[in-house]
Amino acid sequence: MDQPLLDRLAIRDLVENWAVWRDAGDWERFATVWHDEGWMSATWFQGPARDFIRVSQEGFAKGVRILHFLGGTSIDLAGERAIAQTKMTISQRALVHDVLCDVVCTGRFYDFLEKRQGKWGIVRRQPIYEKDRIDPVDPAATLRLDREALAALPEGYRHLAYMQELIGYKVKRDMPGLTGPEVEKLYGEGREWLAAKAK
Question: What is the reported pTM?
Answer without folding.
Answer: 0.94
